[in-house]
Specification:
Layout (H helix, E strand, L loop, with lengths): L5 H4 L12 H12 L6 E5 L6 H13 L13 H8 L5 E5 H4 L2 H10 L10 E6 L6 H12 L5 E7 L7 H4 L3 E4 L5 H15 L2 E2 L3 H9 L3 H15 L2 E2 L1 H8 L4 H12 L3 H13 L4 H19 L12 H18 L6 H11 L19 H17 L4 H5 L2 E6 L2 E6 L2 H7 L2 H14 L5 E6 L7
Parallel strand pairs: 1-4, 1-5, 2-3, 3-4, 6-7, 9-10
Antiparallel strand pairs: 8-9
Helix pairs in contact: 2-3, 3-4, 6-7, 9-10, 9-11, 10-11, 11-12, 13-14, 14-17, 15-16, 16-17, 18-21
This protein binds zinc ion (ZN).
């Protein structure tokens, strides 16, 4: 018997085995039960989310003779032949491989004939957006006047490429990326049934990398089993996928947080020496930082006391940019190294390219000073006239010196509550912790 991939072997055979698409399952089951199946369905969604699996279960369900409920029995002649791929009434067309011209033409000829065995003739067209215009037109003619015994299931990862005339004749379902917990429990089930032992961190790790695709998740498990037999460890996965351990990412980010740029660069070198794909490492790193960002805002995810929100945002922006640049770089390590160097800079002056230019003395802030005043007037009208008497004389890195000729005005603006408002407004223009210094100018005014 030829080797069957885990994805094929453990493909759901019934509605209740399908993972993560409950909204679709429920509607289809009801339709089958009530014998109100539509003539055409359009299944849209990312790859590996179960569209063709769902189509096959539906094909079984509508022709099953052994079950009174919506679930196919899996044992009658019809169910067995669909499962074996030999059912004469279920035709699969892969539009991606030959763009469907001949098949759709043939389909138009044959569609009028009644099914050989079951109640329905089921046409499953995978990647339907790849059909040629000619094939679409032929399909449309059939969809316009579908014989009562025909059921179309069109599947696509790119619904925007399917003509509206076709979409409008179908009942559409959008398949979701499968949630991580659902992927994890499915991986655990399949591993148990296939006799694989997984190290504890393995299922969540695969689920994260697979990004909502069950097919990808099981594909990774397959590769790992081929490499290391029945016991699969995180280390195996890292070597298959070119990923790095969480410990390496933690060390790298820890070095950056501590301003140890040299140490961080050495981590990069180590990783490269291990033959890892640096593009994947960069993606891992941004995923790690994203997770921290969620943690920092109390939205789940991990946390690190050595990185505050501002710093996290800064890091994330730097490494996301590096990840982008690495795609086109002939030496992918270079953008990554530059990001490390930029992230490792001391706090002030870090994050170049993320923020508006630093306020230089006078003119830079002068440009926005009117706006700052207006905003202050909006937030605290009674104190605004006092601030209006100030002259911003110097603005350095997050430090603003205000000069007053009027001692009372200086005293009013220097009140903590007013300073805080002003600091918050400045923070909108140039993020950071601002310091306001009020000084009294006692030199006699020039005449
Ligand atoms: Zn059956």
């Amino acid at each position: 018997m030829p080797y069957q991939t885990l994805y094929r072997t453990w493909r759901p055979r019934r509605f209740d085995e399908i993972v993560g698409q409950n909204h679709v399952v429920r509607t289809l089951e009801n339709a089958v039960q009530a014998q109100r199946v539509a003539h055409a369905y359009l299944f849209c969604g990312p790859r590996g989310t179960g569209k063709t699996t769902m189509a096959k279960v539906l094909a079984k369900a509508v022709n099953c003779t052994g079950s009174r409920r919506a679930e196919p029995c899996g044992q009658c002649a019809s169910c067995v032949s669909v499962a074996a791929g030999s059912a004469v009434d279920v035709l699969e067309i892969d539009a991606a491989s030959n763009r469907g011209v001949d098949e759709v033409r043939e389909l138009r000829e044959r569609v009028k004939f009644h099914p050989a065995a079951g109640r329905f003739k089921v046409y499953i067209v995978d990647e339907v957006h790849m059909l040629t215009n000619e094939a679409f037109n032929a399909l449309l003619k059939t969809l316009e006047e579908p014989p009562a015994h025909v059921l179309f299931v069109l599947a696509t990862t790119e619904p925007h490429k399917v003509p509206l005339t076709v979409i409008s004749r179908c009942q559409r379902f959008d398949f979701r990326r499968i949630d991580q917990p659902d992927l994890v429990s499915r991986l655990e089930e399949v591993a148990a049934q296939a006799g694989l032992t997984l190290e504890s961190g393995v299922p969540p790790f695969i689920a994260r990398v697979a990004d909502g695709s069950l097919r990808d998740a099981l594909g990774i498990l397959d590769q790992a089993a081929a490499l290391s037999g029945n016991r699969i460890t995180l280390e195996d996965l890292h070597s298959i996928l070119g990923t790095v351990t969480g410990e390496v990412l933690e060390r790298l980010v820890g070095d950056l947080a501590a301003g140890e740029t040299g140490a961080a660069l050495r981590v990069l070198q180590e990783v490269q020496a291990q033959g890892k794909d640096l593009r994947i490492v960069a993606r891992e790193l941004t995923d790690y930082l994203r997770n921290l960002l969620y943690g920092a805002f109390g939205a789940g995810g991990a946390s690190r006391p050595d990185l505050d929100r501002d710093r996290l945002v800064e890091f994330l922006a730097l490494f996301a940019k590096a990840e982008q640049e690495m795609r086109f770089a002939t030496r992918p390590i270079l953008p990554l190294e530059l990001a490390v160097v930029r992230a490792g800079r001391p706090r002030t002056g870090a994050g170049e390219g993320l923020r508006p230019p630093e306020p230089e003395k006078g003119p830079e802030l002068g440009r926005v000073w009117e706006e700052v005043l207006a905003e202050f007037r909006r937030r605290k009208p009674p104190a605004a006239p006092w601030l209006a008497r100030a002259e911003p004389v110097a603005a350095g890195s997050r430090k603003l010196v205000l000069k007053f000729r009027d001692a009372l005005a200086k005293e009013k603006v220097a009140l903590p509550e007013n300073k805080v408002i002003l600091e918050n407004i400045l923070n909108l223009y140039y993020p950071g912790r601002w310091q306001i210094i009020c000084v009294l100018d006692e030199t006699p005014p020039k005449r």
